[in-house]
Amino acid sequence: MKPHRMRMTHALLAHYGLLQHMHVLKPNPARDKDLCRFHADDYVSFLRRVTPETQQDQLRQLKRFNVGEDCPVFDGLYSFCQTYAGGSIGGAVKLNHGHCDIAVNWAGGLHHAKKCEASGFCYVNDIVLAILELLKTHERVLYVDIDIHHGDGVEEAFYITDRVMTVSFHKFGDYFPGTGDIRDIGFGKGKYYALNVPLDDGIDDESYQSLFKPIISKVMEVFRPGAVVLQCGADSLSGDRLGCFNLSVKGHAECVRFMRSFNVPLLLVGGGGYTIRNVARCWCYETGVALGIEVDDKMPQHEYIEYFGPEYTLHVAPSNMENKNSRELLEHIRVKLLDNLSKLQHAPSVQFQERPPDTQFLEADEDEDNKDERNHPDSDVNVDCERKSTPRRVKMEFVESEPNHKNHEAVDQVAREVESTLIDSTCSKDSIAAAEAAGLPYVKAEESPENVDVEAGPSGMDQQ
């Protein structure tokens, strides 16, 4: 999760010439109250206060909030959280205002964080915060996760609502975080709105797409989301230090290309990825996919070129590892999940009379502040491009069941407040404020090869 990945990605974007087709923006950091729309006040307060020098005096809280081992304390921890969360919330704000149709925050995608604890290198769940922002405007939001690890934090947060559907494609079994069974489908009103695609080692591009495309096609048909969040964790690539899948960069990016084809407002976020040269390769190529630009395989000269030898190419061939996902297993998963989706004949209903107050735009265009910063490789990136949403139908579904986690209650309460605002046009200021400090401005972009308006986001993350 080191920001060096973002610097390398940004360098590739700059030297491939992709930045000239987008606006690079630097969002304001998310504030305490923005983070507390999902996270507990005392947890956010702890993240703000704790430092490497003071952590030994807070051992009880370290244990309580699961901070220490795979989520260590480091200098600038809270600023790091504010920056990546601000990027994702700000991208959602721009989508809500119709200022862009694709927004990208490669610094985001930290999908394991819970309401009251850190988990799996994730401290603040920027995805949940972005989805809550999107729910201010959109009746339904779809979350799709292609990280090798199960998107447990996001699924858990929205497990009892029918306004958010979560779909996770992940390694299942004796593997972190150990959740994501195909039988985990949601509770109460959220029953059948959680889809888990449990996979085994060595899955390749063809096998992956044999599940991804039919499942996502059915999800889009049945759920009809107003917006989509796609977590593009690159640890599902072949050769990742912590992964065990065998996807190529093009195979991984095919998921982005497919989601883009639905012409629904789309937020792309990063996630895992621990062979950093391949992470940068992947996210550079996927930025090109978002722009509608096919980038060359031969890599241009840039300041990080030595990381990519000896090939100095964007694409790396998959390995010859065994694919343990048999055709029978893949067919069983496909049939089971399509059957679950068939139980949702129509999309859920939400009375949608008036939108809650918008998050204000407080951010200036980074290009206007400093023309040279636009192509500076040491900053992080958000991208947007123009799309049109699809029409949608609605229906309400009720299923009796009991939620079993406090995270559900936290998000359900916020969702109820948002829904109440949509229906009554009245809601407390605190309940509707999501990320005023993280708002991104709108500046009309230049035309790309497909007449796509593109912008790009957070920079300046120098935490090692």
From TrEMBL:
Signal peptide: none annotated. Residues 1-287 form the Histone deacetylase domain. Pfam families: Hist_deacetyl (PF00850). It catalyses: N(6)-acetyl-L-lysyl-[histone] + H2O = L-lysyl-[histone] + acetate. One of its GO terms (molecular function) is histone deacetylase activity, hydrolytic mechanism. Coiled coil: none annotated. Residues 371-389 have a biased composition (Basic and acidic residues). It is an enzyme of class 3 (hydrolase). Substrate binds at D70, G120, Y274. GO terms for biological process: epigenetic regulation of gene expression. SUPFAM superfamilies: Arginase/deacetylase. InterPro entries: HDAC_I/II, HDACs, His_deacetylse_dom, His_deacetylse_dom_sf, Ureohydrolase_dom_sf. Keywords: Chromatin regulator, Hydrolase, Metal-binding, Nucleus, Repressor, Transcription, Transcription regulation. Its cofactor is Zn(2+). Gene3D superfamilies: Histone deacetylase domain. It is found in: Nucleus. The active site is at H112. It comes from the Eukaryota. Its EC number is 3.5.1.98. Residues 364-389, 445-464 are annotated as: Disordered. GO terms for cellular component: histone deacetylase complex. Belongs to the histone deacetylase family. HD Type 1 subfamily. This is Histone deacetylase. It comes from Sesamum indicum.
